[in-house]
Amino acid sequence: MNITHGHSDGYFEEKKLQAKQGKASGKDKTVVHIIPHSHDDVGWLKTLDQYFWGLREDIQRANVYLIIDSAITELTLNPERRYTEVEMAFFMRWWEQQDDAKKETVRNLVNEGRLEIVNAGWSMNDEACPYYTQIIDNMMIGHRFLKEELGVATNVGWHLDPFGHSSANAALFEDMGFDAFFYSRLDYQDKAKRLEEKSMEYIWRPFDKDSSAEIFTHAMFDHYYPPPGFCWATSSCHYYDDPIVNNEKLKTHNYKERIAEMYEWLAHMRDHYRTGNLLIPMGTDFSYKNAHKIYINTDRLIKYFNEEYDDFELVYSTPSQYVKAVHDSGVAIPLKYGDQFPYAEREFSYWTGYFTSRAVSKGNIRQLERHSSNFNKHWTQAILNEKVSKDQKIKLLGLSQEALRVLGVMQHHDAVTGTEKQ
Length: 422
What we know:
The chain is of the alpha/beta class. It has helices at 11-20, 48-53, 64-75, 88-95, 100-111, 132-150, 167-175, 188-197, 255-270, 291-308, 319-329, 359-384, 390-410, and strands spanning 30-36, 83-85, 115-117, 156-159, 180-183, 201-205, 215-219, 277-282, 312-316, 335-337, 343-346, 349-351. It folds into two domains: 11-353, Glycoside hydrolase 38, N terminal domain (7-stranded beta/alpha barrel), CATH 3.20.110; 358-410. A five-stranded mixed beta sheet has the order 4-5-7-6-10, with helices on both faces. Strand 4 (156-159), helix 7 and strand 5 (180-183) form a beta-alpha-beta unit. Helix 12 (359-384) runs antiparallel to helix 13 (390-410). The longest helix is centred in the C-terminal third of the chain and has 26 residues, at 359-384. This is Glycoside hydrolase family 38 central domain-containing protein.
């Protein structure tokens, strides 16, 4: 892999030499937070249930049940490993299939900070098309499930794939108690400017300079993918990257070359951030169906890289651990005001058509939301007036929950937008 990024031929060799000679002090050492995750669309090329159970793999190889199950199993084998879970529409389905012992294992992993649940909406909602009440309901049903079953709340927003970001969504997340917001899709010109200014991390004040509402925001360096050459989730990568071979008796051993490739990537990446902390998302769409393959290679990467270089330290991490490290660095980061629309990934490539496409679908979603809201008002009033029995209350609550979950699926950034298959 040849990564020069405009640097001279001797740039990386000098950096490597300094690292090997131990010239990097503790103050200069950059901590690289490797965050294992899987971006699991609540409907895209397949339906929610097809994705969860692994049906129709002729369309796309994805099985979210196995992704969650495999990742959690691997966490129990090594206390250093971490995993980040996001979509409650999938996690609830998986949770309902587990026995009490497995549920207790998950609760322990969450309490120990080894399994972190972020965002925790029913789906990862779009930020342009939904009405604000729909965003709130989507987050409410996911957070309520999380609180009732695991006894925890999340304070991290994780919107890696929505096609642009609104001031309203940022303000709502701040009102929900979120301390941080991570995303990956930003306008290509804005990204180029931020890379040059080292402003990929900033404090976002969504509406005006005098507002007290603000949230720490991190823009991903290279979408939400691993560095080139280090994607080991073969079912979701667009390429097939070699594993790290550490047996020097074999002619195919390659671990020294692989860690050198990672060093080049990180040395370039470090030039664009301020705090001495870097974030590497170790995952992509529907990763971790074979979690063992990803973790065993990441284990080797961390071990041999840290043995070779002194100016970086690779660690397993989670979004909240990363936020704490950035905060503890004490480095000042810039402010940003306003929204982030429209999103363009390149010249003449603006993601604006989805604001109005599939108007009938968008209208049906709004109509369902109105019916659901009216239904909730009426049955709540009936309960307050003691006009329904206990059994009726349970039935009405179940109907209300089901409607909210359907609405939650429809707020997904590929659903209400119309960017998924019919």
